[in-house]
Specification:
The chain is 56% helix and 10% strand. The chain is an alpha/beta fold. Helix 43 (1345-1358) links the parallel strand 21 and strand 22. It is elongated, with a radius of gyration of 37 Å.
């Protein structure tokens, strides 16, 4: 059974904390007793050939068995001071580093130096080590999640994903906590015990240099150990965070692969999970260790402060205790706001995804303003939430540094008011202890918020994980002659009533199909999957209900197909037909298992192959889109190309079959995409083929070839179910099924159904005038030939051959000053920036004034210091500092010192809040303006930009980068400005106290600058790589969800999951190294800060007597606070600089994208009512899509009279869609002109042009919103006019049946309507616009013959006085047109009436008609 071939036995060394070994799927399934872990039967027993290429990232170690090889052996090796480097230099060295290198991140130094000298590329990064990889960690989290569900069921509680995540990282977090506690103890000892000893030594008149040296050494040693422990804690935490974020993303992706269906809305949600929620989880995984810091530091400080001051110290500690609930309340409020903000962000990202995927249609309709208004409305709502969060952040950032000051103030005021004398050594020891606590207090709100946000994110992800799954059943073939049998079955679409946003709100359907207010029998776009040799009762159907919130049923069923009875013998060809919305595609989905069988039985005997109605193409080579990871068989591959008519297309591509195909097949025509789709199915060699109307996308000659050579030839021994509207193909089917209103209305052979004279007879009546043997449609090639022409021509001449998608640009070096200047300008300009900076300075000076006033107060003593000093001089007395100053409680001005000391806190709070609001609100204002400019820039970008730029890359800017700008940048900017000014001020203060300190300070500052300016380049470079490598992950998620049904039908989940592992690990590698580069940088900054502390201590102890104990205490407590604070500040600085790369990317898209011509040109605005007649004149029109590409249209000249009906025909790549694109200026002419009613269209604005021309495009695209919004987004027409247009487009009955009529909901991409219904909605748009020029780009490809006839009648009646240009889908539709324009290779070959062309020997038009069996003018006229 275990067919390992020649691979040999393998042992996989996991090295994962607490993880089980990464067994082969078979062994893993056996060990867990859960066979469903296997995705399909082949994987249970062997590695399939097609998976080999996707297993390269698995490292195989051949090792001898060792008796003491525990799961912690590898981790414990980090305690060795030094370790030899790993032999494999391609792997990240951190996991094999010795303790010194691991803690100091010294193994990263060479890369940081390279980043400074040469910059970095993705190839410079190491490969992620397997124990940090997404595969092994996701399997572990998945197992723990299953365990959690079992425990929850046992304990009768709801399962919680965060528990499983916690269990997966628990050991590593506990190790981090242990290191944190050790670091906290050292952090406390320096500014408390050792500082007290230093101040006591300074206070005493005797000098002991040995003792002074011991004190200096102790401070150095304690701080070095503290810095190392602090860095080590972060390094462990960063590895932990990398593992868990990679694991959760992989877990999400694997769940998506198991969902019943996908959809645009789900895609946007998953991308949001991957981009924004993972950031929260990462931060929480690192910062959760800080939760123990506060209790540890607090406990030690309470004990020590009571020892110093007695019970009065408890008053200051009480301030900290009160601080907890205050900050807890703020954190809770921030979490609640975050939940609300996420809802709005999800909504905006989802709409952006929809806009990007439909950009061509938006530009054709000139609907940019409508979508800009929608985005602006959502963005405004989002900014309201962000402002509330910013206000809370301002309060938090002010209160946090003020707590230590308030604690000091109330402690000393209470102590002195009670009559006790406060000594300098005691006062500044307490002051230093409270300052040391400030760091732990400061990170507490950040920690609480991070954990709360991560928990919110995990609860949202959990709702995804609880959605119903499409279960594959394993088993052999049922032993009978039937390929498919359905008995008395009623099928329903399942609507997932799950709200991902963690609050009540509109439900988000993972399937995104029919809602309660939508058409019950709406066909579904490309959402089909495979069932495999099973007999299922309708009640079970493998659906597992997710946990309900208790508010509503989690799954709602919309019945669509009723009482279906089908028996299909092996090897039969079955034709399925019916009017639009009758349930044809739903029947395919039901067979695949995407729909729930409410009753009856379904039996599928064999493996399914699926060709969806709208082809799915992913970003890879042409050949890979056909073989999809399978072993390459040259003979079979060539056969597939031949029978699917793809051989000629290969020659048009730059690198032939190895040419890269863009996202969504952007550089292929519709016909090519569908033929690739079909080729994929033929190459897969399955048992049952489900073909959902693939022939409507190709011209008549190609359709005939495919039907004869592929369906009747290559698939002759297969079971084929073919959905088609073409009656001459139906005639050759063994059996025909006619669908009507979700039921099988008629069934039988063509002859039987014709004899019955029922619905089928009526349907073919519209087609009966053609030659009986050859009756068919079509001469055009469907789908975006405007793109097809340019790409094919482009590929023929291209130097960088075969590569379509452009590499994502990355800046190098430091972030450009232009970026900062732009950001300042958009945030309010230099005036506002100066005011905010002044507020921060005032806040910093107020903080410093507090300490300086305390020193001044203590130095005044009892008010008799000058008198005692005179006496000591006169009588040669040696007095200690305390004896010199006396009892400060006896000072007659005590009340004044106390009052000023207390009022300074009020001023601190006031300036702090003003400062916080100013920074965060202005940054948000700048973020808003940059978003608007970026969105406007995207809307104005030409289509060539979208053709070569993956939507995931653009969406990354609007999700991840904008989230950084909205949330992270304001936080880091405020903290950084506040912290830098405070540190700068404290250092200046120490220089005033000890002038000698300037000398070591200069040296240290120079070192600071060197490290910061030069070597910090690595942090920026790595952040850019992190941003760049995230885009492929986003793109892969979107592509996989759109092709979910196809991936599953061909059993390719494992292939795409392995690809996801690779992409995740590449990104995780860059993320891990980027985060550790922060630690590398911070550790070195920390060491310099230690040098500052030691320098001040040396000056204090070896120059004692030069200044008072109070001044020495002020200097030491200040520098100790700075030393503790600098590592965190430097981390924030480095983080901020790296986050600014997101601003850099947004600024790039906001200002540097190419732009189309202006939307409006007032100086050349045509007269009101233009075009009034609709005359068209093309003068020597030449078109090339980019300057370096060859011509697509070669000097086309033609005059079209007003009201003429022109048919445009031609073979694949002839330039038909390019001509239509020219009329709408989707691309600008190379030379020549287009004159409409005497106006040169190149001289007027694009909106003026496009809004005055009606278009019915090839791809029927709908948007989220109501039906009415989809018809009239600007609300320019009354409801009566809309209803009238619906009636003329034969959609009135469909809309009337909707629950909310015109205001019924349309899902993303119109997924709750059939393709035919979507096409009719596009027709309704054109009827409402009622322009003098109408362009139809193969607009009836997806409708049945009867509906096509009705549409053509409507066009004739409604546009009788309009000029109509139609790219012919069915030649009968243009047979009665005034003239026919025949294009060939971008040239106008023929332009005359159909009758004249039919009489012309050698006419291309005549050849096309003859391919349909039409040989005479009379036969042609009979077609209409």
């Amino acid at each position: 059974m275990h067919n390992w071939g020649s691979s040999g036995s393998i042992t996989l060394d996991h090295g994962l904390d607490g993880a089980t070994p990464n067994l082969h799927p078979a062994a893993r399934a056996s060990s867990r007793k859960k066979p469903e872990d296997a995705l399909h039967p082949e994987e249970v027993y062997r590695l399939r050939g097609e998976d080999h290429d996707d297993l390269e990232h698995i490292e195989i170690d051949h090792k001898e068995a060792r008796c003491c090889n525990t799961k912690y052996t590898q981790s414990l090796k980090h305690l060795l001071p030094f370790r030899p480097p790993r032999k494999d230099k391609s792997l990240i060295p951190s996991n094999n580093a010795g303790m010194f290198s691991y803690v100091s991140v010294s193994w990263l130094t060479r890369l940081m130096w390279r980043a400074y000298k040469h910059g970095l590329n993705p190839s410079d990064l190491w490969t992620l080590q397997r124990e940090d990889g997404s595969e092994v960690n996701s399997e572990r989290v998945e197992r723990l999640w299953e365990d959690e569900k079992g425990l929850a069921e046992k304990n009768k509680r709801k399962p919680e994903l965060w528990r499983a995540v916690w269990r997966s990282i628990r050991t590593r977090v506990l190790v981090s906590i242990f290191i944190s506690v050790f670091q906290n103890i050292l952090q406390f000892l320096g500014p408390s015990v050792i500082l007290k000893m230093v101040l006591d030594y300074i206070n005493e008149p005797e000098t002991d240099h040995s003792y002074a040296g011991i004190l200096v050494g102790a401070i150095f040693l304690i701080n070095v150990c503290r810095g190392a422990a602090f860095n080590g804690m972060f390094v462990v935490g960063t590895h932990t965070a990398t593992r868990i974020t990679g694991a959760v993303q992989a877990l999400i992706y694997k769940k998506v692969m198991k969902l019943k269906t996908g959809g645009e809305k789900l895609s946007a949600q998953i991308i949001n999970f991957s981009n924004n929620d993972m950031e929260r989880l990462f931060e929480a995984s690192i910062s959760c260790t800080f939760l123990t810091a506060m209790p540890v530091i607090f406990t030690m400080s309470v004990v020590y402060c009571i020892y110093i001051l007695g019970p009065w110290a408890l008053i200051g500690q009480g301030v900290y205790i009160l601080f907890y609930p205050i900050m807890g309340a703020i954190a809770k409020a921030q979490s609640n706001i975050r939940v609300e903000t996420v809802k709005v962000t999800d909504k905006r990202v989802s709409l952006m995804s929809e806009i990007l995927n439909s950009m061509r249609l938006i530009k054709m309709y000139s609907w940019e303003d409508s979508f800009a208004k929608k985005i602006a409305g959502i963005r405004k709502e989002e900014l309201k939430k962000h402002r509330i969060g910013a206000l809370l952040q301002a309060v938090s950032s002010t209160v946090t540094p003020s707590i230590s000051i308030l604690a000091t103030i109330v402690t000393f005021l209470a102590y002195t008011l009670s009559g006790y004398s406060l000594k300098s050594a005691e006062a500044f020891t307490i002051f230093s202890v409270f300052n040391a606590m400030q760091f732990t207090v400061g990170v507490l709100p950040f920690t609480i918020r991070s954990i709360a946000e991560a928990k919110i994110s995990l609860s949202r992800i959990q709702k995804l994980l609880e959605l119903p799954e499409h279960k594959k059943r394993t088993g052999g073939l049922v032993n009978n002659n039937l390929a498919l049998q359905i008995k008395n079955a009623t099928f329903a679409w399942e609507v997932n009533n799950i709200d991902f946003k963690n609050k009540s709100g509109p439900p988000v359907s993972a399937k995104g199909k029919n809602k309660s207010d939508t058409k019950a029998n709406g066909e579904v776009k490309g959402e089909k999957t495979q069932t495999n040799g099973h007999v299922t009762s309708g009640q079970a159907n493998g659906i597992k209900n997710p946990v309900s919130d208790g508010k509503s049923e989690p799954v709602k069923c919309i019945e669509t197909l009723f009482n279906v009875n089908v028996s299909i013998a092996r090897g039969k060809l079955i034709g399925v037909c019916g009017s639009i919305g009758s349930g044809k595609s739903s029947l395919i989905s039901a067979i695949c298992g995407d729909m729930k069988a409410q009753s009856g039985e379904v039996q599928v005997n064999g493996r399914l192959a699926l060709v969806t109605q709208q082809a799915w193409i992913y970003n890879d080579t042409f050949r890979e889109n056909i073989i999809v990871g399978q072993k390459f068989d040259e003979e079979l591959y060539r056969k597939v190309l031949r029978v699917c008519a793809l051989e000629s297309d290969i020659h048009l591509l730059a690198e032939g079959e190895m040419t890269e195909i863009g996202e969504r097949g952007i550089n292929l025509s519709g016909g090519q995409k569908q033929r690739v789709n079909l080729g994929r199915a033929v190459y897969s060699d399955r048992d049952i083929y489900l073909l959902d109307d693939p022939l409507s996308a190709v011209d008549s000659k190609v359709a005939k070839h495919i039907f004869n050579q592929c369906i009747l030839g290559a698939l002759s021994n297969k079971t084929v179910i073919l959905v088609t509207h073409a009656t001459h193909f139906l005639e050759k089917c063994d059996e025909i099924i006619l669908m009507q209103n979700g039921k099988i209305a008629e069934r039988g052979s063509h002859a039987e159904l014709v004899a019955r004279k029922g619905e089928y007879f009526d349907m073919i009546g519209f087609d009966s005038t053609r030659d009986k043997s050859e009756t068919e449609e079509d001469s055009g090639e469907k789908k975006d030939e405007s793109v097809n022409d340019v790409k094919k021509e482009e590929n023929e001449d291209k130097e960088g051959r075969g590569k379509l998608t452009t590499e994502e640009s990355r800046a190098t070096g430091s972030v450009s000053g232009k970026v900062y200047l732009t950001f300042i300008k958009e945030s309010g300009g230099w005036c506002i920036a100066s005011i905010i900076f002044l507020a921060i300075i005032i806040f910093t000076l107020t903080r410093m004034f507090n300490a300086i006033w305390l020193q001044h107060w203590l130095d005044q003593g009892d008010g008799s210091v000058a008198e005692r000093l005179d006496n000591a001089t006169e009588y040669n007395l040696t007095l200690s500092d305390d004896e010199l100053k006396g009892d400060i409680s006896q000072n007659p001005m005590l009340w004044m010192y106390q009052l000023v000391y207390g009022l300074s806190f009020i001023l601190l709070l006031f300036t702090g809040v003003i400062k916080g609001i100013g920074v965060t609100f202005r940054v948000l204002a700048g973020a808003s303006k940059l978003h608007n400019k970026m969105f406007e820039s995207i809307l104005r970008a030409p289509m060539s930009f979208f053709d070569t730029t993956p939507s995931g890359r653009i969406l990354n800017r609007f999700s991840r980068d904008l989230d950084e700008l909205d949330v992270r940048v304001p936080f880091f900017l405020e903290f950084l400005l506040q912290g830098l000014l405070f540190v700068f001020g404290q250092i200046i203060l120490v220089c005033f106290i000890y002038v000698w300190f300037v000398l070591p300070l200069v040296v240290i500052v120079i070192l600071f600058i060197v490290v910061d300016v030069f070597l910090n380049a690595g942090v920026r470079e790595l952040k850019r790589l992190d941003n760049t490598l995230k885009s492929p992950v986003t793109q892969h998620i979107g592509s996989s969800i759109s092709g979910l049904s196809v991936i599953r039908a061909f059993d390719k989940e494992r292939l795409f999951i392995n690809r996801m592992y690779k992409l995740l690990d590449k990104h995780s590698s860059s993320l891990l190294v980027f985060r550790l580069s922060n630690r590398w940088f911070t550790y070195r900054m920390d060491f310099m800060a230690i040098c500052v502390t030691v320098a001040v201590t040396v000056i204090c102890v070896f120059t004692k007597g030069l200044v008072s104990t109070a001044l020495a205490g002020l200097a030491l407590s200040t520098v100790n606070g700075v030393c503790v604070f600098i590592p965190f500040l430097m981390r924030m600085k480095s983080e901020f600089q790296s986050r600014v790369t997101s601003v850099e990317r947004i600024v790039e898209y906001a200002y540097d994208l190419p732009s189309e011509a202006p939307r409006e040109i007032p100086s050349s605005q045509p007269a009101e009512g233009w075009p009034s007649s609709g005359t068209l004149e093309l003068k020597d029109v030449k078109l090339r899509y980019r300057p370096d590409l060859p011509l697509v249209l070669h000097g086309i000249s033609a005059s079209i009279k007003d009201g003429e009906k022109i048919g445009i025909v031609g073979r694949t790549g002839a330039g038909k869609s390019s001509l239509i694109s020219t009329l709408l200026r989707m691309s600008e002419l190379d030379s020549g002109s287009v004159i409409v009613d005497g106006v040169d269209i190149s001289k007027i604005g694009l909106h003026t042009l496009r809004s005055n021309i009606s278009v019915i495009p090839q791809d029927p695209v709908l948007f989220q919103g109501s039906i009415r919004y989809n018809l009239d987004p600007f609300e320019e027409h009354s409801d009566d006019a809309v209803w009238q247009a619906l009636e003329r487009s034969h959609l009135k009955d469909v809309v009337t049946k909707q629950e909310h009529s015109l205001h019924s909901k349309v899902e993303a991409a119109g997924e709750n309507f059939s393709v035919g219904e979507r096409q009719l909605i596009c027709l309704t748009r054109a009827l409402l616009r009622n322009s003098k020029i109408l362009l139809l780009d193969e607009a009836t490809a997806s409708v049945d013959i009867e509906t096509d006839h009705l549409i053509q009648t409507t066009i004739k009646e409604a546009f009788v006085s309009s000029t109509v240009l139609t790219i012919a889908h069915r030649l009968n539709t243009v047979a009665n047109y005034d003239r026919i324009m025949v294009l060939d290779a971008g040239r106008l070959s023929e332009f005359d009436s159909p009758e004249n062309l039919m009489r012309t020997e050698g006419s291309l038009f005549k050849e096309m008609m003859q391919a349909m069996g039409v040989n005479t003018v009379e036969q042609m006229k009979a077609l209409t």
